[in-house]
Amino acid sequence: NMSIRQATQYTPRSIGFCHRSTSISFNRSIYLHKGPRVEGLKRDPKEVFLNHNGIEYELNQNNIQHIKSYLGDKFPIPDEIALQIITHKSFGNGIKPYNEKLAAMGSKLLSLFAAKHVVNKSTATDAKLAINGKNLSILGSPNAKELPGRISTGYFAKLNGLNDVMFWKSRNPTLSFESSGELKVSSQLLYSLIGAVNIYHGKAKAEEFISDNIIKGLEQVTDDLVHRK
């Protein structure tokens, strides 16, 4: 028969009282989905920050050079603001700095400049409303109404390559320039460009920028659009 002493000697080993540190690791594989959204699959975060042309959102010269070139040495702005100008709030769920507030400011500046520009033209002899040699009647014309508007400014941005690189999201980017939403986003880009010049150089300089770089070409675009209707 086993004595109590023997039992206490062997029992711990036999029933597993010996304490051993055990390390258990688990490997978890996560599939990061690319392409069209599929319910239940986690989207690759990198894909969220690619535009429709596969260009990654990033502060580099390739992304902002077209904006910097258009501004030239006369109206410089910081590189990070140039990136903000080409970024719409629809991109990346609005996580990155976008151009909405700059565009609101630029839109008002362009509207004011355009109004002053058209009334300062030579007054027609049959103008119904002319004050101090300024033809206020022209403000009601189709060209004057359309001049600072979304369609004219959107096409102007496209014709001048300002929307060559933009970060935005469309439900269907294969549609036309207008139907896909690209026109609206391009217009907002131009407004925000004016707004940024105003922030960094002041109102007088922003009006000089419009006068030097925008108004003549914008008038041509507007005239084509009005006659197209």
Helix content: 40-55%
Q: Helical stretch count? A: 10
Percent of residues in beta strands: under 5%
Shape assignment: globular
Helices and strands, in N-to-C order? HEEHHHHEEHHHHH
Q: Give the CA-CA distance, first to last residue.
A: 112 Å
Model regions low in confidence, pLDDT < 50 over at least 5 residues: 1-19, 29-33
DSSP strand count: 4
Structural class determined from secondary elements: mainly alpha
**In this structure, how is the largest beta sheet organized?**
2 strands, parallel
What do you see in this structure?
- It is built from ten helices and four strands, in the order αββααααββααααα.
- It has 229 residues and is mainly alpha-helical.
- The strands form two sheets. A two-stranded parallel sheet has the order 1-2. A two-stranded antiparallel ribbon has the order 3-4.
- The longest helix is centred in the middle third of the chain and has 20 residues.
- The radius of gyration is 31 Å and the shape is globular.
- It starts with a helix and ends with a helix.
- The N terminus is likely disordered.
